[in-house]
Amino acid sequence: ELYLDYNGSTPVHPEVLDTFTAFVAGSYGNTAAAHHEGRRARRILDTAKAEIALAIGAKPEEIWITSGGTESNNWALTGIARQYGRGGHLITTAVEHRSVLKSAEFLVEDGWSVSYLQVDEQGRIDPGQLDHLFQANTCLVSVMLANNETGTIQPVAEVAHFCRARRIPFHVDAVAALGKMPIDVNDIPCDLLSLSAHKMYAPKGTGILYVREGLPIQPLIQGCGQQAGWRGGTVNVEGVVALAKSFALMKAGIYGSKEHIEDLREQMIDGLRRLAPDLRINGNAPRLANTISVTFPGRRAMDLLQALNGHGVSVSSGSAATNAAPSHVLTAMGFSEEQARSTLRLTLGAFSTREGIDRILEAFATVLQKVAVQDPV
Ligand code: PMP
């Protein structure tokens, strides 16, 4: 209830956990094995994959199992670049998750070149910039669906149309959007799309890379020919089964409506404004309803985070993995380092309640008095 870091990770839903543990207890075959336990695991895997495919408008053969969003993003970028050969050019954005940005830097070391779409103060790219960045050797465009720090939703359909017209593969990191907005590969006509189960009430360690049928891509993980040789390693069947169950719960409306989350968001923001009238809410719609990026001028986000933690309230400063450095997302939006270091990310989810937010606001009331406004240096 006092948890405000749903973009960092989510609690596993009890029904997802039941599905997961039932599988672990009852099935242990390796999907690559020829015996009946292997066949059984394969059948279960195929059913779960088909359910996941259906949920995102894909075909089962287009769903590949990975270890998470990071691997899916690494695979999409390096797999397409290697397929193209040396000397290719990627276009991505300045506000991607590190798993995309670091893969891009790795490719540069290996002879590829990369251009970055810049963002406005709301964190949005201008697809019109693509014309200027496009080159004859552009072999991939990668743009996230929603930003994990600000919730900003990117105009990916426009990017997709640009790429389609020029026959360039288009990758979408949809990890932060999962469970928070519809994701359908027909609405976003992309060629590759990354998902991660732990962002939607399923256990950590399972990711998906959607690869449009017919698109050639080199493997990232080499192994014993599992998943048709596209991704080596014993398949994490229980993780996939759990994710399929989570998609079913989402479809059934178990995780709550967007309107409910929006009401909670307004309650949170109204309460905070009363406590700190000088705060700034970052990023305009369209954005994820659950994500609040809020700057408290002159206060250090890390001090606020730690003081809130003392009250049992879990918030994030920027993305979970980069608490030490000022957020590259916020600095790309034109924030000074100081402003970026004064920004908290509060993210809501299926188990957030009005009563919980009242208690969180009480904690904020105490903390905002204790954590003094710093003199500007
Ligand atoms: N992309 C985005 C937008 C994310 O928010 C995250 C998770 N923080 C990832 C990729 C990485 O996913 P995972 O944690 O499953 O490796």
TrEMBL record:
UniProt keyword Iron-sulfur present? yes
- Keyword list, A-Z: Iron, Iron-sulfur, Metal-binding, Pyridoxal phosphate, Transferase
Domain of life of the native organism: Bacteria
Record-linked InterPro entries:
Aminotrans_V_dom, Aminotrans_V_PyrdxlP_BS, Cysteine_dSase, PyrdxlP-dep_Trfase, PyrdxlP-dep_Trfase_major, PyrdxlP-dep_Trfase_small
Q: Tell me which cofactor or cofactors this protein depends on.
A: pyridoxal 5'-phosphate
Q: Which reactions appear under catalytic activity for this entry?
A: (sulfur carrier)-H + L-cysteine = (sulfur carrier)-SH + L-alanine
Q: Which SUPFAM superfamilies match?
A: PLP-dependent transferases
Question: Which Enzyme Commission number(s) are listed?
Answer: 2.8.1.7
> Top EC class per UniProt?
transferase
Domain Aminotransferase class V, chain residue ranges per copy:
3-359
Q: What does this protein do?
A: Catalyzes the removal of elemental sulfur atoms from cysteine to produce alanine. Seems to participate in the biosynthesis of the nitrogenase metalloclusters by providing the inorganic sulfur required for the Fe-S core formation.
The UniProt similarity line reads: Belongs to the class-V pyridoxal-phosphate-dependent aminotransferase family. NifS/IscS subfamily.
Query: This protein is called what?
Result: cysteine desulfurase
